[in-house]
Amino acid sequence: MKKKRFRFQWGAFLLLIFYGGLFFLLFTRMVTLQATGEVEGQELAARAAAKYSKESAITANRGKIYDTNGQVIAEDTLSYRLIAIVNDKATTDAKKPRHVVDAEKTAKILADNIPMDEEKIYKQLTRLNNDGEKPYQVEFGSAGRGISHETMSKIKAEKLPGVLFVNDLKRYYPNGIFASHLVGFALKEENKDGTFTTKGKMGLEYTYNKELTGKDGKVEYETDAFSYLLPNSEKMITPAKNGEDIYLTLDKTIQSFLEEAMTQVEQEYNSESMTAVVADPKTGKILAMSQRPTFNPDTREGDNMKWLNEAIEETIEPGSTMKTFTLASAIDTGVWDPNERYPSGTYRVFGEPIRDHNNGIGWGMIPYLEGFQRSSNTSMAHLLKKIGNDVFFDYLDRFGFGKKTGIDLPNEASGTLLSKYPVERVTTTFGQGSTVTPIQLIQAMTAIANDGKMMQPYVIDRIVDSSTEKTIQNHEPVEKGQPISADTAKQVKEILASTLTAEYGTAEDFILDEYEVAGKTGTAQIPLGNGRYSWGSNEFLYSFLGMAPVDNPQLIMYVSVKRPKLKGELGSVPVSKVFNPVMLNSLKYLNVNPEDVQHVDNATIQDYTGQSAEAIQVELANDGLQPVIVGGGGKIIDQYPKGPQKLVNGNIVFLKTEGDVTLPNFTDWSLRNVLVFKSMANLEIEVVGEGFVASQSVSAGTVISDSSPIVVKLKTPSESFNKDVEAPSEDEIEQIDNE
Asked: Where is this region: Disordered (predicted)?
């Protein structure tokens, strides 16, 4: 047998070396990766997390804006964003296209439903990127955002391929034109990362944007390569923090009265502009504020409009409304004698004529009281000589003119008091030359209405954490000093009231049937520049600064109408058509007793905490009050109003006890009373409408033991005014000295 000869196989040897080397390198690499967890200086775990870890945003709601009674003025609401898929790569089945197939048809249908021209929509649907390729999807700017459910449904019904909707949040203003320049508006803006944030652009929405803006949350989780949630993967949730809620001093009902009256006068007289403010003189709270022209904050539509709050940011020459404070200065310094006579007609300051409004003819030698009632300019000039220049301007400073009131609104103007030249000092006494703001007139008038105490105006009642309902900021009334004595204030009110009722009074258009009004008209020339002024019946700023009722003013109001197209009547007529219905309806809404029943019997309540509700119920009823037990009876644990204090007979007193609540008969209750009961009873009561209760969904006498909602419907105030006597606010009650 022949022995085989060994032959060395170089090919096999080289293959062994090659593959062995590869295996060695692979093994070394695996060991290195296991040991270090890095590749090319990068953490593999981090790269895996970046690829498979997902994050989803939780959108935070912007804070709400409420009126003083908790009625919504601005809030976020569900809306939709329109998206069109335009790239045919999105379609995998030609029978079921997922992109826009017919751009012309799609543009036509969309143009019928969103505020964008058909041509612009078509260009957006057919546009190309810089590289000449179609984008995957397109949007339509502001026209494609904030779409309502109704519009979305109409577009969906057309079954347009490639047209999609994404849930979105929209800032919503449910009252339409409603203190628009005060509240302002907010819009969604696109961020650099492609996300959208609602940002305030004007008014309170802008000023308090930081407080109203929430902080988005997020959900983090892990998926596999196909985006399926991995087993046992943990979700990490960072909750969204909603924005803070802002409660205003505005009263929705009074604001609605004002908006309606101003709209009617604007349409009837086609005025260039109008401004109005309603305030509580005892606290400085602004209850209503508006201007014309105005806009709808949902659409931002408005014609010939200034994008500023004229009551705060714009100065005016106030005209004869300024005589109110010249009169107050004269009375307070002791130089006022209503029966003293002076020569009316024309007064000269170093040759410069100061004329009365009847072309300087005047009415001969007349008493100062008659001069004020006639709104005589020369009477003010003669009074200035008696008061003294320095003393007079010191009083104007005390009243807050020439400086900001400090109201919690932005861009407040301060106005300018001219006193360099003698003629400027004289014209300032009757409101010409020097400038003020409407809000300064309101602040100064609080001193006349409030026994000499001047209150700072404010519009923010409180700011509340929307999650915890904890009050973060609480604004309280601020007294700005006492520019005049209580006796002076009383005399000024009486004289202002006489301008409506006296034979020579200029304010008879402002007489109300049921309440006694005090106030001063104004007819101011409008400056044209270079010392020139406009002239003519349609070329003035007509105004009225008034209060009611005279004995105990509950409301003060300023109204101005610039360049109305008069129809032969006095300029005070369009002003009165705003002032009169708003003042009358507001006083009735607040249940302020008319003049003929002002002197009514009072009853004194005490602190009844810990006493028997049933016994106190009998005692209060005997005193002419209306006790309402909130709970099952027994010991009283809380009450509203608090004692001790005096209440007008007929007022409701709420006595809270433990136990289930028995529902009272809400018929003819005011909104405020319903809200007080709701708060004390901690019940789910849904209020529909305004004014006074007309019906309730759950019968009176029902014991409420669960959280089922109760619907209470209210009539408009004009239908129900004389029905209800409501629980007073703290500003409407007379405090009793404990001593």
From this structure: 720-739
